[in-house]
Design brief:
40% helix, 3-stranded mixed beta sheet, globular, alpha+beta, two-stranded antiparallel sheet, 8 helices
Length: 202
Amino acid sequence: MVRKQYSNYFTIPSYPSSNIMEEVALICVAHTEDIGFLKQNLKSYDEKGKYKINPYFCGILLRLGDISDFNSNRTPRKLYELINPENKSDEEWKSHFIIENSEIIKKDDANSQSYIAFYGRCSDPKIHRNVLGYFDWVNNEIYNANLITSTMNNRYKLNIKPQVENNITPMGYTIPNLKLDLNFVFETPLVFPMIQPSLASL
């Protein structure tokens, strides 16, 4: 779509024979592909007119920005009610609803290091497990972003804490803060109901 409909928007100022249409199109494609797509299709250095560009870095930022956009602002409740999703789709929508903070990417004033933090409350153990699985995916993207940019010029180096700061509070149950593989069958349950004091005393 970028190539067909918006090519005129990506001409280089004062250098009309050159444009960044192809780079923008590939960046858009890359955020839906495996991380290897970036390395194979985008350069870490190029020149267009008088400008020096790093499409590889832009692709990394788009991936991080997209995966960090995980709250109810992305999935408005009114739209959820209109669509009325079912089964797995319903679980995905509800996973967004438990995130209560809008500022996801933060800065540690002590060491100027960026980090990704999620705050919220959850009353459904199944949704909580889905969210923990999502955090694992975010952690993997952070790892790749830090690793790839570590070989770039200093201005492009990302210094993001390697683990998401998980501040999701379970309501009415406890859940181990473990790395979860939802396709693996555990012999013991991951979720344990909280024992009410009145029952514990019986």
